[in-house]
Amino acid sequence: MADIKGFLKVKRKYPEYRPVCERIKDYTEVARLRGEEHSKEQAVRCMDCGTPFCHWGCPIGNYIPEWNELVSRGKWKKAFELLDATNNMPEITGRLCPALCEYACVLGINDDPVTIRENELAIIEQAFKEGIIRPGRPAKHSGKKVAVIGSGPAGLSCAAQLNRAGHKVTVFEKDDSPGGILRYGIPDFKLEKWVIDRRIDIWKKEGIRFKTSVNAGVDYPAVKLRQEFDAVCLAGGCRVPRDLKIEGRELSGIHFAMDYLVQSNRRAEGIKVPKDKLIDAKGKRVLVIGGGDTGADCVGTAHRQGAVCVVQIEVMDKPPECRTGSYPWPKYPLILKTSTSHEEGGERQWAVLTKKFTGENGQVKKAQCARVEFPGKDDKGCPIMKEVPGGDFEIEADLVILAVGFIHPEKQGLLKGLKVELDARGNVKTNPDYHTSQKGVFSCGDMRRGQSLIVWAIHEARHCARAIDEYLKSH
Asked: Are both 192 and 284 inside the same structural domain?
């Protein structure tokens, strides 16, 4: 390391964000990119530990201690080469990943962990700044063609790997621009879309073809896919939302989180939405049901649209603020997360069950709720939920956003047309090498594993691409 005792001399410096009073007026990214010298100083904190558990915590196996040392010495090109060897889109994970690696950092046992995610972002942005990243077409082509369905992180990473291997790759996307949930499900204040476009432009120059506004399996029949391509990768994500089927659900003003976020992202691009289709929080009392990252994104979006007030509720108990015995180091802990959206205002409540919605003239006005507790677990180890006596109350709301997760991929169209087998949860079933029940058809990412993290999508995509490459070489 540049300074073997650096972790004793330099304290962790947390990310810097634009002032709340400024950022809630626009959709520009809230985080400020670190300076070069700041990044070098923070990289010095990486210890020369005997067993770097950050590797264990990172699903894609980033060479974290190695590129931290290179950053601390100002060797950006070599640091990028190591980062590029394991990660197809570090400019995305550097902004959005929950940093599983940092929770496994050895320094984190008795001090603040290394700023691994920010160091990763610094490397890739410095590489772009210095012109290190250039399109590079494969030296040889196999003559084999692969169709990748879906252009989210799994589809894009799989396509990039297969293209590098010399196969001709076509990515199908049913929306009008590639990026999947990265483009339409993540607000611009967390990920500005020029970041995606910059990477897509490189992949286009490297030879990857993108067919947008094409719903594979509907506009482009499954039979045609099988006839025209030597292999097919299903990476369409897990997009069927979990509903809250309670009394009053049919009232106007209750929407799924993804419908709300997608529309907001399109509006941020300047796309006009018909008035009768508009989902807007301006001047409204907003209730977000669901305490995860998607719910937090809805909170931040509602702030920017001018909501009168925003309340976010979660049915589970409030997580602890520090590690507990149930999540010892180096496990990724279940702890309280406060996002930049929460810092901007609003109210959060935990252990709240939504029982029914009530309204006036067909429009939602209130949510009838109850306080709950979890006294124990059942025989299967699942928490037992009970309502607290006298804990009924109501929340006034003109706009309700359901952010309670996703259940499985869309089955109509492509999956039905290809006749692939599904698992017990409704996801695409594969064997260990990502091969589905249909020969030559593979699957990876959320469509195969269910709703998960971007970094797991990249992990699956890279392994799936290798399996497809081996399949094509033997057929």
From this structure: no
- pLDDT at 3 (0 to 100): 82
Q: How far is CA 191 from CA 94, 185, 299, in A?
A: 10, 10, 16
1 has a pLDDT exceeding 70: no
Q: What is the mean pLDDT of the chain?
A: 96
Determine the Cα–Cα distance for residues 33 and 384; give it in Å rounded to an integer. Answer: 44
CATH code: domain of residue 316: 3.50.50.60
Instruction: Dump pLDDT digits (tens) for 355-410.
Output: 999 999 999 999 999 999 999 989 888 899 999 999 999 999 999 999 999 999 99
Q: Helix (H, G, I), strand (E, B), or coil: what is residue 215?
A: coil
Q: Is there a domain that residue 75 lies in? A: yes
Residues 363 and 342 sit within 8 Å (Cβ to Cβ)? no
Whether 363 and 247 share a structural domain: yes
Which range of residues forms the domain containing residue 440?
145-239+406-473
Over residues 352-366, the pLDDT tens digits come to: 999 999 999 999 999
Q: Pick from 108, 33, 116: which is nearest to 455 by CA? A: 116
Residue at which a domain ends, from 87, 102, 129: 129
Give the single-character DSSP code of 347.
Answer: E
Give the integer Cα–Cα distance in Å for 319 and 109. 20
Output the DSSP codes for 384-416.
EEEEEEEEEEEEE-SEEEE---EEE---TTHHH
134, part of any domain: no
Statement to judge: residues 253 and 213 lie in one domain: no
Final residue of a domain: which of 129, 155, 187? 129
- Give the number of domains in the chain: 3
Token pair for 66: 């190695």
Helix segments in 412-453, DSSP class H? 414-418, 446-449
Per-residue pLDDT tens for 290-314? 999 999 999 999 999 999 999 999 9
pLDDT of residue 50: 87
Alpha helices in 64-112 (DSSP H): 64-72, 76-84, 90-96, 100-103
pLDDT (0 to 100) of residue 48: 84
Q: How far apart are CA 458 and CA 59, in angstroms?
A: 8
Q: Determine, yes or no, domain membership for 138.
A: no
User: 152 and 65 in one domain?
Assistant: no
Both tokens of residue 195? Answer: 């970041």
3-state helix vs strand vs coil in the chain, percent to 5: 35, 20, 45
Closest by CA to 447, choosing from 462, 431, 432, 429, is: 429
What pLDDT is attached to residue 51? 92
Q: Are residues 254 and 358 in the same domain?
A: yes
